[in-house]
Q: What sequence folds into this?
């Protein structure tokens, strides 16, 4: 099922389809404990800016003309208070989102998407990647652990 899916760079003509999937992703994330509200009116501008940035990796999974998923990563400057793993590379990789429509999950597409993001990071001499997973997203946690990612930190919040 994943063999007929092309993972490629996002292009401007993909923006509306990806915007729609992005909104779906956030609706689903609320069921996993996401407390931040998505500013739906700004999603298109956000995606457009990401597409133009040299620091962002913006990928889509396409089944012919239909976009069935996406993956976003970026290069993030490591804080100066930390001794860098590679002193000649001041950036780390950060995977922001990997999302597929429910009917495409479990097909190996996420593994392919992550491999593509990691390949592009490696091409830019990035050898350390972080990401966030919502605590209530058990399937996501299992996926990332099976992909070799390790638990690093717990983000906590309190409304005051």
A:
């Amino acid at each position: 099922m994943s063999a007929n899916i092309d993972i490629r760079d996002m292009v401007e003509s993909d923006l509306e389809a990806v915007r729609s999937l992005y909104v779906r992703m956030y609706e689903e994330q609320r069921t996993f404990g996401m407390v931040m509200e998505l500013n739906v009116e700004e999603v298109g501008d956000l995606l457009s800016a990401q597409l133009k940035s040299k620091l962002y990796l913006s990928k889509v999974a396409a089944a012919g003309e239909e976009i069935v998923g996406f993956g976003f990563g970026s290069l993030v400057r490591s804080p100066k208070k930390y001794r860098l793993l590679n002193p000649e590379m001041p950036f780390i990789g950060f995977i922001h989102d990997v999302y597929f429509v429910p009917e495409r999950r479990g097909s190996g597409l996420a593994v392919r998407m992550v491999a593509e993001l990691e390949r592009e990071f490696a091409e830019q001499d990035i050898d350390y990647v972080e990401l966030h997973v919502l605590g209530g997203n058990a399937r996501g946690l299992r996926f990332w652990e099976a992909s070799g990612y390790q638990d690093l930190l717990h983000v906590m919040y309190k409304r005051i």
